[in-house]
Amino acid sequence: MKLYKLLIVAFCILFSACNDNNKSSVERKAVYVKPSIDKKGRYREGHIRMPVSAKKDVIKNLNRSKYYYQTKGKYKRKKN
Q1: Residue 34 has what pLDDT?
Q2: Sign of the C-alpha dihedral, residues 69, 71, 73, 75?
Q3: Other C-beta atoms lying within 10 Å of the C-beta of residue 51
Q4: Burial 8-42 (b: 16+ CB within 10 A, else e)
Q5: Is 2 inside a domain boundary?
Q6: Which has the closest alpha carbon to 31: 47, 45, 44, 54?
Q7: HSE on the CB side for 37, CA within 13 Å?
Q8: What confidence tens digit (pLDDT) does each residue in 25-77 have?
Q9: What is the 3-state secondary structure of the chain?
């Protein structure tokens, strides 16, 4: 009887550990941002925030940013 209970508990733990809850497998959706008032008192209109940028230069800017942070300090060092 104890063996059966142990097997059931082990099966439940194993089953819950195999659950696939990866964020990468979840499809991203557009989100509506509500209108609000910023800290200076200005009105900010509501808009839709897209999950992926629609700009044509996204890849170029991403690579430029990546290069900057990978070589950070390269141009700040003094040359002798």
Answers
A1: 96
A2: negative
A3: 9
A4: eeeeeeeeeeeeeeeeeeeeeeeeeeeeeeeeeee
A5: no
A6: 47
A7: 3
A8: 567 788 999 999 999 999 999 999 888 777 788 888 888 888 888 887 666 65
A9: CHHHHHHHHHHHHHHHHCCCCCCCCCCCCCEEECCEECCCCCEECCEEECCCCCCCCHHHHHHHHHHHHHCCCCCCCCCC
Do the beta carbons of residue 30 and residue 50 sit within 8 Å? yes
The reported pLDDT for the residue numbered 32 is 95
**Assessment of whether the complete model's pTM goes beyond 0.90:** no
Nearest Cα to Cα of residue 29 among 14, 44, 48, 45: 48
The structural domain count of the chain equals 1
